[in-house]
Amino acid sequence: MKRWRSTSLWYAAGGALLGCALTLLAQLASREIPREIVAYRRDRPSAFGAIRLAEGRLTGFGYAPYPTYVNSKRAEEVLRPLIDPDSGRFLVQDHALGVASSASQFIAAVERDHKLSMEPLTSALLVGDPNPGTDLDVLPFLQGSAREIEDISEIYKGLDTRVLTRSAATPAHVLAALGSADIVHLSAHAEADLSDPGRSRFHLSPAGNAPGDLSVRDILRQRLQRTRLVVTAACDTQAGLVSASEGSLGLGSAFLTAGVPAVVSSLWKVDDYATARLFVHFHRELRRGADPLSALRTAQLQELGGSNRTWASFEVFGGVAERKP
User: Fold this and answer.
1) In what helix (H) or strand (E) does residue 134 lie, and over which residues does it extend?
2) Does the N-terminal or the C-terminal CB of the chain have fewer CB atoms within 10 Å?
3) Which domains does the chain have, with CATH numbers?
4) Rg for the chain (alpha carbons), in Å?
């Protein structure tokens, strides 16, 4: 099995304090396991210097920690891409970045991803542009979602691709199709419930008297043995309460628990059009044969210009085996 080169950084998402997390990573690095698996580079420990705390709690790793509570801090002081203090460059310019809640989760996810990727990619489930029904009064229309799904469906033309949009994008239809797709892409509004992670949800299309909520609890009831990747192209999909052993308990984490080895999730609110543009680039790279981590980095590098930081919100959670086109 191919392993990641040391230029790839995998961060551990668990742990309440930054010091504790770094101590754990240092301990892991000294054990008899490959260096590229433990999310710690002894030759460049300063790369961790840009990680910040939000209200005394480490709420996530990656480009920036997600501020579950930012009562006394302005969000823009916390939500920013990580920069290497030595070079002044964004970390993504020099490294592929991933997030795992533990070394054991990462190793298991990489092995599962490697096993699934041995089979050819044959199917995709694309969900977007839902009809929010009465929620339209409080949820803005996703103007870029329809084009996003259309463009991505063209990328997977020739595969068994199922597209669920507008009134067809109901929770029941999505749940029925999840288990038969190699890749799943969800483009919708999402809402994180910071008091009860099980109630965090995607806002999809209602059907009759059935609401359009696809919740964490719904996802956790699934056993996704075939799906190798889920993309959550929505706001705050990795937001939620933080477990010292499991990291942030959000919508993205639910797919990992259901058996998916890799999930692309967001750390904060994102722009509709920038998200659509990012993931069209991302899926093109996937279709060329890149792994999700490399594909996301390539897409992000194309979005570095300008002031929009949507590109920095998205991370690969779980673990993937390295694959080049």
Assistant:
1) none
2) N
3) 8-113 (no CATH), 119-318 (3.40.50.1460)
4) 18
